[in-house]
Specification:
alpha/beta, Alkaline Phosphatase, subunit A, 2 domains, eight-stranded mixed sheet, 14 helices, 20 strands, globular
Length: about 525
């Protein structure tokens, strides 16, 4: 559904108190400057719950030709990480340029205007510099699949146009979906091979909407655009057209992770805290079916990426448009006995990140130094000459785009909570259940994780010899010095995730103390 046939003259609406707050905040700001017609456009593409199971990242069976071609056009960041492996905290962090400890967003269904209302979001910064900013689909948190077709937990001040299509995957298929938890689809493993073709699905409709917006943007020479397209796939339920996508991944050929019990022996309980009880019902056949559907959903999403990028090329916009492709966090498909997200292992924390910046990036560049979602805000504003807030916490990746061998910060940090979280837990705390943080530091060689400052366990993995993180070296005497050094580094890095003022936005917690409440 298109909310306005003319995206360039939409009148602001005060849909709720939050919208009014954002509108008033914008009114107090200086008037936008007129953008120079040479300022580059931005096409921001983000997938939901996508790990690095892509051809361009070396997956042996993934069929993702469009994303692979995109990687060949620019720089692929080989070690890119989210700040928090959960949709809401990750997306709010990426889109505000602040770590979760500075946004105050540590769970889903929260909005950064509740904690840091005056912060300029990424697209809002572009709007204030004269850009037309539009969103299609999911950029901030949505409850998938129930919020598809709505604004979800979106930020009205970030956009001039919001489009929220809903396809058969939301409107028709729920009764037919295979799920581990009856009546639930988004937070549990669930999947369905749809008889309907691409154009009937939500992501297919979003690709059509994106083409529609690009066609209108191509006719405007006086305003650059920031177009964000948030695809829902491969988020559960893994729904994609049966043909051709499920056929590309024969069920019998899907891998099943072996030797899980042996792998888990040296992992502290907190490291496995994202395990869900319903996964006890998984058989190897169900694991193969689930993985087949996950791959199929990735390939379906890839096809929609291709439609949008092809339109950009055909409209003659590519030479002056920066393209970003990423995901909100990684995803487990059985590794360490885990599925989905909310762990601090590589599969959950690592994300794909591709940037094409015409005139800046060399084709096919590969940057191997660890980077973070937090780095996208300063990178895009620098590339486009857009003023960024002084408090954003990332590094600009422009030096890496010019020379992928550049080291930059050299590390990335990801955090997660353990124990009961959310508003219900804050209202009815369980005195017997401690709530605490885990912080994981990723350097070029090591992943080092501390749970509750080490009180709930430590993990150390040597990626030079153990890329699958099978052997926890944290308790090995020969690695004591490495643990000591990385412990100091992760604590220093964790401190840098808080506001410079030291004031934590409406979150009564300290760096290593239990999480007491959430906004």
């Amino acid at each position: 559904m298109k909310t306005n046939p003319n995206p360039f003259c939409r009148k602001p609406s005060m849909r709720n108190f939050l919208s009014l707050l954002c509108l008033l905040a914008c009114c107090w700001l200086p008037q936008p400057v007129t953008a120079d017609d040479k300022q580059p456009n931005v096409l921001f593409l983000i997938s939901d719950d996508l790990n690095n199971m892509l051809g361009c990242y070396g997956d042996p069976i993934a069929k993702t030709p469009n994303i692979d071609r995109l990687a060949a056009r620019g720089v692929r960041f080989d070690r890119s990480y989210c700040t928090f492996p959960l949709c809401g905290p990750s997306r709010n962090s990426m889109l505000t340029g602040l770590y979760p400890n500075s946004t105050g967003i540590l769970a889903n269904s929260q909005i950064f205007r509740q904690t840091i209302p005056s912060q300029h979001s990424l697209s809002q910064a572009f709007r204030l510099s004269g850009y037309f900013a539009a969103r299609i689909g999911k950029l901030y948190h949505y409850n998938v699949p129930n919020s598809i077709g709505t604004n979800g937990h979106d930020d009205p001040g970030s956009w001039e146009l919001e489009l929220n299509p809903a396809g058969v995957d939301r409107l028709e298929h729920h009764p037919e979906i295979t799920t581990l938890t009856p009546g639930q689809f988004g937070g549990t493993l669930s999947w369905f091979a749809s008889p309907k073709s691409d154009q009937y699905h939500t992501d297919g409709l979003m690709a059509e909407d994106a083409v529609w917006v690009l066609e209108r943007c191509a006719k405007r020479k006086d305003r650059p655009f920031f177009l964000a397209v948030g695809f829902f796939r491969p988020h559960t339920p893994y729904v994609a057209p049966k043909e051709p996508y499920f056929g590309w991944y024969p069920e019998k050929e899907m891998r099943v992770v072996a030797n899980v019990e042996e792998d888990q022996v040296d992992i502290p309980p907190a490291g496995l805290g994202s395990y869900k009880k319903e996964q006890d019902t998984l058989t190897d056949d169900l694991r193969r079916q689930s993985l087949q559907a996950y791959y199929a959903s990735i390939s379906f999403m890839d096809a929609q990426v291709g439609k949008v990028v092809n339109s950009l090329d055909q409209l003659g916009l590519a030479d002056n448009t920066i393209i970003v492709f990423t995901s909100d966090h990684g995803y487990h498909t059985g590794e360490h006995g885990l599925w989905q997200k909310m762990s601090l292992f590589e599969e959950s924390a690592r994300v794909p990140m591709l940037i094409v910046a015409p005139g800046v990036t060399n084709r096919g560049g590969i940057a191997k130094s660890p980077v973070s979602h937090i780095d996208l805000y300063p990178t895009l504003t620098e590339l486009c000459g857009v003023k960024a807030p002084s408090n954003i916490q990332g590094q600009s990746l422009v030096p890496m785009l010019k020379d992928p061998s550049t080291i930059g910060r050299g590390w990335a940090i990801t955090q997660v909570t353990r124990g009961a979280v959310g508003a219900r837990a804050a209202q009815k705390p369980n005195a017997n259940e401690k709530r605490f943080f885990g912080y994981s530091l990723r350097t070029a060689r090591w992943r080092y994780t501390e749970w509750d400052e080490g009180n709930q366990g430590r993990e150390l993995y040597d990626h030079d010899v153990d890329p699958l993180e099978k052997t926890n070296l944290a308790s090995k005497q020969e690695h004591a010095k490495t643990v000591e050094e990385l412990s100091k580094q992760v604590r220093s890095a964790a401190k840098s995730t808080f506001p410079a003022s030291g004031e934590i936005p409406e979150v009564k917690t300290t760096l290593w103390a239990p999480l007491l409440t959430e906004p």
